[in-house]
Specification:
With 75 residues, the chain is of the alpha+beta class. It has a single domain (5-73), classed as 2-Layer Sandwich (Translation Initiation Factor IF3), CATH 3.30.110. It has helices spanning 16-26, 43-54, and strands at 5-9, 33-38, 57-64, 67-73. It has a 4-stranded mixed β-sheet, covered by helices on one side. It is globular, with a radius of gyration of 11 Å.
Amino acid sequence: MNIDKVLDAKGLACPMPIVKTKKAIEALVSGQILEVLATDKGAKNDLTAWTKSTGHELVEIKEENGVLSFYIKKG
């Protein structure tokens, strides 16, 4: 998978990971991949719902050492 941009949202609580993701994905073109790093467990539900409601695709979620990695393809 080719990552076009990485957003570090570690240590941020809801709703900041979503706010920063929205801003970061605006800079990408359709089809590009944004990797979002977050430590807020609520981000899993939040980003899943957000991608569905905005037409983006949540390609994959990984968790390693308490850090969630979300791979979002811009719609």
